[in-house]
Every structure is written in C-alpha cells, then in structure tokens.
Amino acid sequence: MTLPAYEKLGAFYLGRKVDASGKDTDELVMYDSRDLTTHAVCVGMTGSGKTGLCLSLLEEAAIDGVPVIAIDPKGDIANLALQFPQLRGEDFLPWVDVGEAKRKGQSPEEFAAATAASWKKGLSDWQQDGERIARLQQAAEVAVYTPGSSGRPLSVLRSFAAPDVALRNDSTALKERVSGAAGGLLGLLGIDADPLKSREHILLSTLLDAAWRGGNDLDLAALIAQIQKPPFDKVGVFALETFYPAKERLQLAMAINNLLAAPGFSAWMQGEALDVQRLLFTDAGKPRICIVSIAHLNDAERMFVVTLLLNEVVAWMRRQSGTSSLRALLYMDEIFGYFPPSAMPPSKLPLLTLMKQARAFGLGVVLATQNPVDLDYKGLANAGTWFIGRLQTERDKARVVEGLLSSAGDGLDKEKIEALLASLQQRAFLMRNVHEEQTILLRTRWALSYLRGPMTLQEIGQLNQARPVDSNAKPVAISPAPKPASKPLLPAGVNEYFLPGATPGATYVPQLIGVAKIHFIDSKAGVDEWQTRYLLASLTEAGGPDWDNAKVLDNGKSVLQKQGSDGATFAELPAACLRAQSYVGWSKDLVSAIYQATTLSAYRCDALKLSSNAAESESEFRARIGLNLREQRDAAVERLRKQYAPRLQALQDQQVRAQQKMQEQQSQLSQQKLQTALTVGATILGAFFGRKMASSTNITRVATAARSAGRISRESQDVDQANDSLTTLQQRLSGLQTELEAEIAKLQGELDPAAVKLDSIDVKPRKTDTVVSEVALVWRAV
Q1: How far, in Å, CA of 588 to CA of 429, rounded?
Q2: What is the pTM of this model?
Q3: Percent above pLDDT 90 for the chain
Q4: Strand partners, 508
Q5: Nearest to 13 by CA among 2, 26, 29, 33
Q6: What pairing do the DSSP bridges indicate for beta strands 40-43 and 385-388?
Q7: Are residues 560 and 656 in the same domain?
Q8: Which of 85, 261, 711, 719 is disulfide-compatible with 665, CB 3.0–4.6 A?
Q9: Is residue 377 a part of any domain in this protein?
Q10: How many domains does the chain have?
Q11: What CATH number is given to the structural domain containing 70?
C-alpha cells in the first residue's frame, strides 16, 4: 500500500501553511521530530485550537514510535483514547453530548451518526482516513492513569523509595530529588514551605537525604517515626531541639499521620508503581501514550503528583544514554501555576532541569498554556519551537513576544511578529522553530482522535478495564521456629542484620546472607557484565546455609537493617553459626554453588548485535532497540540527503542560469519587436505624408523591416529553446527530488521494536572471577 506524501520518516504532519492574507495553501507543514529535543511551547487562549494542535503533535509522535507521558490537568488529553478507525456512529455514541443532541432536535443515535460523518469529512479534508487512525492504534497503546482514585490508580508514593546508586552518587541530582519530594509532601499537607527557610522542609529534606544516601527506603509510617525521633542530633550547627523542638515536630508528624489515616488516602498507595520506563513502554516494548489525569484532584494534590512525577522523569532521564534522536516526549497541558516567573513551587526545579538538560538524552518537553503572563520566560528560553495562537489581551501578546524574542535571539522582527499575532484566526498558529530560517503561519490538521472535550473521572473509568493486581513475591520458606531465647552474642568479625517487617515483640529466626561479586561473560553473545548479588539462605539441619535454594534479595543491602524490633525474642542459633571459621568455609561453598546453579538470563538481538544487561527488562531492551533503529534511520536519511545534495544543487544552479538566459532571450526579442515596429511605422508615415514608396529611403526602410522580421523569428526560436531547456532542467530536478524521496521511503523498513526477534540466552559465571565479600547472619521475624 502506498502511504500518503506526509507519511515521512521522522517528520510530523502538523497542517498546512497559511499565506499573509490568511488563506490556506497547499504546502504541508512537516516538523522534524529531532527538533523537539530542544523542546516546544504552545500558547493560545481558549478556542484558539491549542488542544487540537498539541494532541495532533502527540499523535504524530506515537505514529513514529515515540512514547509520550502527558500530564492532564483538565481531562482534555484523555481524548487521545477515543480512536475510532471505522468512524461509525455507534463508536461515537457513548461519548457525544446528549444535551447538545436534544438542543438540535436529534436523538443521541442521530447526533452520533452526524458526528461520525463530520469527523470523517474533517479527516478527508486533510487527506486522512480511518486507516491512519488504525496505524495510530497499532503504533502505541493509550493508558490513562488517575492517581488518588480508584479508576486506574498510580502509586505515586513509590517515589519515597531510595533512588538508584547512580543518582545517589550525583549530589546535585540527589539534592533536587530530595527537595522535590519534601516540597511535594508539604504541599499536599497545605504547608507553603521555602526550601531555605522552612523548618519543615529542612527537616524532611535532611531525613530523606540521610535515608537515601544509605540506600534505605522510607514510607510515610517510617517518616512519621523519624520526625519524632530523628537519627541525628544536630541540624547544621544547631542542636536538633533548638532548631525544631520535639513538641513542634509532633505537630508535623500528626499532620502526616492524619493524611495517612484519611479514608481516601489508601488510593494513593494503590495501583501500578510510578515507574517511568513502564509508563513509556509495555512489557513487550510497545510505546505508550501515558496520560496522567489530575483533573479530579485539588490544587495541593495536583502539585504533589506533578512534582513527584517530574522528579521520576528526571531520574529516568539521567539513566539514559545520550542521543540526538527523539527518545520520548513529556507533555504538560495548562502549565499555569507550575512554572511561574518568580515563585518557586516544588514543580519548578525539576521542570527547569528538564528544560536545560533533557536535550542531551533525547527527551523532548512540550508545555502548553492559555495564561502566558504566568510563565517563567527565562526558563523557557531553552525552548527551540514556539506555537502561538490567538491571545486574549494585549498584555498576553506583549509577554509572548518578549519570551519569543528572548528564546530566538535577534533574528526576529518585533513589529512583524506583532502584526502576525494580531491577524491569527482559529486553528491558525505562528510557528517559530530555531532550526528553520523562516517563521511561518500554519493551520492545524484535523485530529485523528475524537476531541469531545474534557472527560470526567467516571468517563475516564470507562476507558480503563480492570487490570489484575500483581501478586506479591512468595516469602522465603522458614522452618518452624524453635523455642524463643535472648539474642546470642556473635564472634568478632561476623556481621548481623535484620530484615524489615517485624512488629514489637516479634520472634526472630536465623538465616544467612552471602554477598558475591559475579562475572558473567560470553564473548559470542556479546555479554560481559559484573553483578553483585545478595543471596538469602535458610539454615539446614546441620546448621549451615542451603546455598542451592538461596533466594536473591532484589533490593540488596538497602533492605537490611542494623537493629531489630524492640522487645523481640530470638530462636536458638546453631553452634556452627557461633564459630567465625564456619563463615570462611561457607564463603567457599557459596562460590561453588554460584558456579553450579547461577545463570544470567539475557536477551540477544542478532540482527543488531545487541544484548540486554542485567538491569534491563525485555521492555527496556526493546525500547533501546527502538531507539537504535531510529538512530540508524535518522543517520541513513541524513547520509542520503548529503549524497544527493551536490546533484540537487548543481541542477538548481543550472536552473537559475537557464532562467537568466531565457530572460535575456525574451528581452532581446522584445527589443527586436520594438525596433521592427518603429521601422515599419516610419515607412508608413513617410508614405502617408507624400513620400514615394519607391524612393531610396523608403526602399531601405522596407528592407530593414524585412530583415528585422527575420531576426524576430530567430529570437523567438531562441526563446523557445531556452524555455525548453528550462523545462527539461525542472523535470530533471523534480525527478531527482522524487528519486531522493523514494530512496528515503525505502528506509521505512520494520521499525517496530516489538516485532524484532529476540533470543533468550543463559550465561554462566566465570568461577575464577567470583568473589564473596561477606557472609553474615540475618534475623527474620516470624
């Protein structure tokens, strides 16, 4: 099947150009996807068509295989889930406005059929149809999340889990993450906290920083306990009790406890974890349009969700490799209040970080608003593309022009921009792209999704079918607990830890944990990876560890605690565990057990000679494959354009010279015609005033006129030849351009990472490289 002309690789079909008089032209506006890595801003009043433009941009990204996270404060973005390839009235029926149907004197069925016909015509006017909607459906999955509700909940409080090691080692990134988490929680409590002045903010930041630097997670219950009894005595140079007395700390702890005890708060802890990789891709590696709807939340809850989500995006971004291709999009509608010019809400810092740093990682940020006076234009100076629609007030126009000029430098004419803004009509936008020389006017294309307006929480619930809840991992099997006793004393050099989850007065039973650094290597499969694994083993009847059935402790040492529950009792410890030499022998046994039974399961893509790493799921690996394919495609297109550039330039130069030659020939022909006309005229006038035609003067003039007529014929032939030459060059140039587009089209290929064949491989460790750094005792509550 031949795809439409606008289905170009890496190019987004946004609409058509508009001329100076406001009329649509036939020239399509194709936007290079890589330009979005320098971010975009869309500004326009209600009714300007801003939502249609932004949703069309997201649709184009999805068709190109680029995943999207969209933050939706109004419920408009959920319209992206209303995709009806067959364009039938019954598809539209559940979503049409019944009240509007009544006002028009139609039944809901009649109104739905009319809406479907209208949508079909709108698509047709822009050379689109149901097949393109089907391509959009096949390209990306649409998922609408509703944090803090029972629709499709999102467990945002996962963000109080300790960041990964790479982020913890980046002091600037950790500081931003800590500040954002503390500010978001205090915002949810209704506390307006300055990071540098607020005792609440400083205390929470200090607690989070201390826990996360040690690799320890914090839930709200643990945070409440630490507020009452912090694990430090000083804050800065002041004693803790001087800086923030216990009585006043209790009030903060009570506020968080009230939040935790509130009947509706359980919804915040339900649903899928706030994992950006899983939001962007399915388990099979298929891109997603992930919509986080916050329209049902109050202002404090919205700020809380946005702040935590943005911080998670920043953390995810820092884990990615650098690329010049567009890897993913972050879109936020109605940025009003989250990115103000002077105030510093907790959402602003991660947004500034993304605007300044996301380009290097291929993450594009698109921000939209109808309130331009409340935007930080210094922060938006990093935006490379501006879409500006109709604005309501002169103040709005002045602020937008100021921001546009500050981002684009001195290359714009302020008066011309102001004149263009004043003439904008509905769905018409001024587009300024720093990667293009010209500022253009465009009219946005018809959206593929049915834009029926903001959706309520109940309507969003209709979009999401119930998803099965993942069952928790099975606990480690433990033998029946022996008679309780007091905690035994261990020999010097033997460490002991406690697993979390114990209640006061619990009974602990012993287990052993081994920490081993393992080298998995398979040169043929392209795998060369080191891993540190924490292996938790039950004790055998002989008192030693059962390494063969040991369980891998997923969170590593971060879950191991130095102290147990108050008032706990302890099971009897086997005699072997009281001898330091036993742990040396168990270390050697662990090396043998690892070599015999441990493997690294990975994925291999022979076509691209890529292998997954240990921390990479199939979804993440397929996402990396998709980026690799896109980078190869972009590079191949660039090479083709460079390859054809000299030939295209040569033909264009020949065309210019041919045009100049034709103009010269036409000028000579015109001059010759004028000269001949004058000569003939003079001859006629001479005869009229009585001169004899046979006179020598008149005879000469007649002969000259005859010769001029001959020259006119030759000049006309020269003009025709020049015109034929110009036509031939134009045909050759058009043919070469068509040939280039055909070569580019051949690169379409198979870009779906979900369709790439993967092989599962198991890599055994190299025994000589395996090093056991520690074997320690672990107490587990039963």
Answers
A1: 70
A2: 0.72
A3: 34
A4: 570, 781
A5: 29
A6: parallel
A7: no
A8: 719
A9: yes
A10: 3
A11: 3.40.50.300
